[in-house]
Amino acid sequence: MRTSRRECPSPHSTLNKVARVLWGVCWWTLFRPSPRICFRWRALLLRLFGAKVTSKSRVDPTVRIWAPWNLTIGSDSSIGHHVDVYNVAPILIGDRCTVSQYSYLCSASHDIADPTMRLTAAPIRLDASAWICARAFVGPGVHVATGSVVGACGVAVKDVSAWTVVAGNPARFIREREIQA
């Protein structure tokens, strides 16, 4: 049995689509092939496309960024290799944050109650000294508070309280995080 389904129009403007094509060309030709140590070069390229990135930010050349104009990276923060930054909505990464290899910061999803499954988006915020461990997933609208850790392969779909460690799928409280002197 066939069901009729109306067409789902793109929520993205023509300007947004053109900008993403230009960014894709820049990523393939200038960003991705740059030597790993050229952090300032990649920060410059990101700034040219509207990102707010300090010269002390460290972004690996294999990081995939969907829309640089929706990205803010604080001082002394690092985004590791093969991280996927799907920033349909803004993603703010505070000072001294680490986003480890193969992690996924996903600021968009789809409304499963809508027959056209329209795109929904909500910003992600990582406060100062947060750590997103290897292969972790941070979903739309999640706030990872100061000093928090999302453990390896953790799936954070709800806010993470300050100075806590969460892990699992879905991520749940493991313990308090304490910094030793």
Automatic annotation (TrEMBL):
Superkingdom as given in the UniProt entry: Bacteria
Similarity section: Belongs to the transferase hexapeptide repeat family.
Keyword Transferase carried by entry: yes
Protein name: Putative colanic acid biosynthesis acetyltransferase
Keywords: Transferase
Source species of the chain: Roseiconus nitratireducens
Gene Ontology molecular functions: O-acyltransferase activity
Taxonomic lineage of the native organism: Bacteria, Pseudomonadati, Planctomycetota, Planctomycetia, Pirellulales
GO cellular component entries: cytosol
Iron-sulfur is among the record's keywords: no
